[in-house]
Amino acid sequence: MDQVDLALLKSLEHNARLSFAELADAQGMSKTPIWKRVKALEEAGVITGYEARLAPKAMGFGLSAFVEVVLDFESSDAFETAVARHPSIWRCHATTGDADYLLQLFARDMDDMDKLIRAEIARFPGVRRTSTTVVTRSIKENQSLAALAQTR
User: Fold this and answer.
1) Owning domain of residue 18
2) 66 burial via Cβ count (<10 Å: 0-12, 13-18, 19+)
3) Which residues belong to the signal peptide in this entry (predicted)?
């Protein structure tokens, strides 16, 4: 991946609706080589898709939280299946440290969050303990991976 690829990726991260003509103009190139580069990045799995970013609050989700989950190791497959099927779990990561998993959730309000954690997630297979941290405000979101790659 060269600097042109990274510049293309940075542009697409910022606005995935840019046309090949706009991408080409920004790089001082013609559309065909830009199209070939983008297609190559897609085929290599660097670009995994294009999506609209939605604002949780505008969608009625006024609360965000991170939930650390400790579980019985032998239940990890069943737990991961339950997580994958649950629509309210935004993200899930297997982690090292005190917890086995870190979940990111969105809820409408505190009652909704409480129900989601105590009545649903805490009852997933193998869950021994959860610890919740509620987000009060977001400082940084949507960091550019292309910009990070340029610094490394």
Assistant:
1) 3-52
2) middle
3) none
Instruction: For residue 7, give the nearest of 27, 21, 22, 25 by alpha carbon.
Output: 27
Cα angle for residues 96, 66, 84 (degrees, 5° grid): 75
pLDDT tens per residue across all 152 residues of the chain: 899 999 999 999 999 999 999 999 999 999 999 999 999 999 999 999 998 888 899 999 999 999 999 999 899 999 999 999 999 999 999 999 999 999 999 999 999 999 999 999 999 999 999 999 999 998 988 788 888 887 76
**If residue 130 lies in a helix (H) or strand (E), which one and from where to where?**
strand 127-134
Q: Both 93 and 115 in a single domain? A: yes
With H, G, I as helix, E, B as strand and everything else as coil, classify residue 123.
helix
64 with 21, same domain?
A: no
Domain count of the fold of the chain? 2
